[in-house]
Write a structure and sequence with these properties.
CATH superfamily of the largest domain: P-loop containing nucleotide triphosphate hydrolases
CATH class of the largest domain: Alpha Beta
Largest sheet: 6 strands, mixed
Number of strands: 22
Helix content: 25-40%
Number of helices: 18
Structural class: alpha/beta
């Protein structure tokens, strides 16, 4: 294919997919050309993942035609797609923790020499891929214990070793901070210059403007709009995604009360990830925590919630020292944490929605020491309704979209009526519609006098929901900004000290 050839390398025509009598894709057309980035956008459940899985060979279409490099294309498996030059990086991490980075990069396709695994060659190529993404880490290191951001970069490095001609990136920056995201964008630009086509799925709409050539919007299993450029106003994209006009992305922020609910004094991590942190949060205040990946944000809120040990300092609730030594200590004192990784730490995927909501609330549900199905279901249904969970109590949590799983996590903890709610990356990988409902919930909590702490890598989000923002840099407290003084520049200046 010549450099001037503008014909698509991938074409989809009238792709449909049904599960029984339910059709989830309705005759979708899509073209991707060499050296371009096509953003595939839509709310959770719009059909993006199903379409991507069809292209990558994970799911078979019910009808329709695909061509790849002008030849008929119908991959029977992900390996068949990979062999054809189509690679997909999934949002959910699929690394094997007990294997090394190099082994994960080449799992299922180990390099051999003389009939034996060529570990040196694998380590060299894995290291090269990591360096291209700015990750200076030994390929011999086990994946176990690495941060979510580093694991995401390893997934991307894994795809880069495929020398693919088409890459599908599903929420590649969901776990990345600003610096890592820019490194990824530079790599995408390099891949574009080499003629690689890229399908880019993301809920971070501002970044779409930076790297995409075209935008395809899906809603309810159909392609509803296509823009022939990437610099489309976010508002226009969102309205196409949700099918209605949006007056504002973030609701109004309530004014906090004068009473201090939570105070942190001289808090330092036993692992050295943060040190000498001091702040106080008022009743009904939304307190944002910003900073680059690795700044110690998650480790700090885990310590406040009793999940990680501290070496010094104390935590006070209404002026009384309550420094938790375990999560149960924090929960008993009215401090709950909604963790960053909802699938591993927030919900039990193969248990029902009702059971997940019930687990932290068994004492309230029990009557005379006994829990009946009727009481459990009534309790759960009440909170499913209150939080707008799109699912029924008997469904497994693993069947829900990311946004609805997050609502289940929120429901189970807020049923305890906590005094302090800590939200770590509350909308990571969640579509615009679900994000809006979570923002409204945050403001409702604040208006009820609950103290809310929000950790977010999304600057627009942390600016949009916070009364004040503490910025962390390299484990230190770089400063606290009032809402009127906070903007993306002032935050980044402190974050890069």
């Amino acid at each position: 294919m010549t450099a001037k050839d503008t014909s698509p390398i991938l074409s989809l025509r009238q792709i449909r997919k049904s599960y029984g009598s339910l059709e989830v894709l309705h005759g979708v057309d899509l073209d991707v050309r060499a050296g371009e980035v096509v953003a595939l956008l839509g709310e959770n459940g719009a059909g993006k993942s199903t379409l991507s899985n069809i292209i990558s060979g994970t799911v078979q279409p019910s009808s329709g035609d695909m061509t790849w490099q002008r030849a008929p294309y119908a991959p029977a498996s992900p390996r068949a797609a990979m062999d054809a030059g189509v690679g997909m990086i999934h949002q959910e991490l699929k690394l094997l923790p007990q294997l090394s980075i190099a082994e994960n990069v080449f799992v299922g396709r180990y390099l051999t020499k003389g009939g034996r695994i060529d570990r040196q060659a694998m380590e060299e190529r894995a290291h090269s891929g990591l360096q291209r993404l700015g990750l200076d880490i030994s390929p011999r290191r086990l994946v176990d214990g690495l941060s979510t951001a580093n694991q995401q970069l390893i997934e991307i490095a894994k795809a880069l070793t495929l020398n693919a001609k088409l890459l599908i990136l599903d929420e590649p920056t969901a776990a990345l901070g600003g610096e890592e995201t820019q490194l990824l964008f530079r790599q995408i630009e390099r891949l574009k210059s080499e003629g690689v086509g890229i399908i880019y799925i993301s809920h971070r709409l501002e970044e779409i403007r930076q790297i995409t050539n075209r935008i395809v919007v899906m809603r309810d299993g159909a392609k509803v709009q296509e823009f022939d450029r990437g610099d489309v106003p976010v508002r226009t994209i969102v309205e196409a995604m949700v099918g209605r006009s949006l007056e504002r992305m973030f609701p109004a922020i309530p004014t906090p009360q004068d009473q201090v609910t939570l105070e942190v004094r001289g808090l330092s991590s036993a692992f050295g990830s943060f040190r000498d942190i001091n702040f106080a949060v008022k009743k009904g205040e939304v307190f944002g925590i910003a900073g680059l990946v690795g700044a110690g944000r998650t480790e700090l809120v885990r310590a406040i919630a009793g999940a990680d040990p501290i070496s010094a300092g104390e935590i006070l609730l209404h002026g009384k020292t309550v420094t938790p030594r375990s999560p149960i200590d924090a929960i008993r004192n009215g401090i709950v944490l909604v963790p960053e990784d909802r699938k591993l730490q927030g919900v039990v995927l193969d248990h029902s929605i009702a059971e997940n909501i019930a687990y932290p609330n068994l004492k309230e549900i029990a009557q005379g020491g006994w829990i009946t199905s009727q009481r459990l279901n009534t309790f759960a249904d009440d909170y499913i309704g209150k939080f707008g969970v799109k699912g029924q109590g008997h469904q497994n949590a693993g069947e829900l979209s990311g946004g609805n799983q997050q609502k289940v996590v929120l429901a189970k903890w807020l049923a305890r009526k906590p005094q302090v709610v800590v939200l770590d990356e509350p909308t990571r990988g969640i579509d615009v519609g679900a994000r809006s409902s979570i923002y409204e919930l945050i403001m409702e909590l604040a208006s009820q006098g609950v103290t809310v702490i929000v950790v977010s890598s999304d600057l627009e989000e942390v600016l949009g929901v916070s009364n004040r923002i503490m910025v962390m840099a390299q484990g230190k407290q770089a400063g606290v900004l009032d809402r009127k003084d906070a903007n993306d520049v002032s935050i980044m200046e402190l974050a890069t000290i």
